[in-house]
Amino acid sequence: MKNPPVVAAIPSSPNVVPFGLKMSPMTFGWVLAISAIFCFSLATPIARGLILEGAAPVGVIAVRMIIATSLHWGTLQVTSPSMLRPRFRDIAISVSTGLLNGLGMILYFWALTRLDASITVMLISISPILVLSMLAMRGEKLTRRHVVRVVLALLGVYLLIGPGGNVDLLGVGMALLAVSMFSSQLVVVQWYLKDTDARSITFFTNLGMLITVAVGWSLQGLPWTPISAGSWAAIVVLGVLSTFLARWAMYTAVSYIGSGQMSMLNPVEILLAVIWSILFLHERLSLTTWLGGGLILFSALLAIKRINLAQHRPRWRAWIRG
To answer: How many domains does the chain have?
Structure first.
């Protein structure tokens, strides 16, 4: 295995383009943003493909998180060692949110054993609605528009799973429970870690996720199914592209183009994930399913706009992809 790549730290000034690249800072930011969205969009279809080939879901997550956490540690050790030594309070909160997120990721992968990747990734886009709902419970003003967003999202979920219950309801339940865990820990980060560097939060959150997944895998007896070289390559892509590099690109892009511009690309990620699922997994969606997914994405867009207006940091999106 090659040594971890040396990746430049997030620049202190968004007017500087690293690596001596001949492009404007804004162009560099958009290149990173689009690259991050592309890498994130690969995660769910690849995971579903591995499961269809017989790979053990929790074992796949464990290897993925080992790769991503090791690369993150190595990169910070070279570029920003101070990020590995934040306050104890920040470490405790970050690791705790990672523990919760790790459980959510296990549920999400189990959901992928029962649902198509395209349906599962559409369900996860309900997260912005849940984030706003949790913020409302802590004092954030609950408006009529938020009620409309919730109704649209629920109607979308209803259409997505099929009015006749054609989709596996247990899988849907696990996916929605996973999304609620992602959303709750993201809100905790918003409340208690607003002033902590995102790179440090991400590393210690990944560490917490790795702990949860390792414990869960051990309790299952460390199940592992022999897989092909192609499947191993897919797991490496999950760890390197869809987890490590995607997060670095996203956070760096935010420093150049801002959180609002970055979050507006989120529906593109969902759309790309659905396209990959159709092209490579040969999934087929009915008109009702497309309509349900469209309503969820529309409600998510409205929620993202509300989150941006409230000046909430966008880092909550990073934990959704796991």
So the answer is: 1
- How far is Cα 304 from Cα 266, in angstroms, rounded to an integer? 9
Residue 212 placed within a domain: yes
Distances (CA, A) of 149 to 5, 122, 133, 152, 297: 42, 15, 10, 5, 10
Q: What is the pLDDT of residues 97-148, one digit of tens each?
A: 899 989 999 999 999 999 988 888 888 777 767 776 776 666 666 667 767 7
State in Å, rounded, how far the first CA of the chain is from the last one.
23
pLDDT at 190: 66
pTM over 0.70: yes
Whether 189 is in a domain gets the answer yes
Higher local confidence (pLDDT), 12 or 79: 79
Task: Report long-range pairs for 258-263 (Cβ below 8 Å, ≥24 apart).
Answer: 259/308, 259/313, 259/314, 260/308, 261/29, 261/30, 261/33, 262/33, 262/314, 262/317, 263/304, 263/307, 263/308, 263/314, 263/317
What count of residues does the chain have?
Answer: 322
Would residue 16 count as lying in a domain? Answer: no
Domain boundaries, position 276:
24-320
pLDDT > 70 fraction of the chain, expressed in percent and rounded? 77
Q: 53 vs 144, which has greater pLDDT?
A: 53
* CB of 175 closer than 8 Å to CB of 120: yes
b (16+ CB within 10 A) / e for 195-217? ebbbbbbbbbbbbbbbbbbbebb
Cβ atoms of 109 and 175 closer than 8 Å: no
DSSP one-letter code for 82 = G
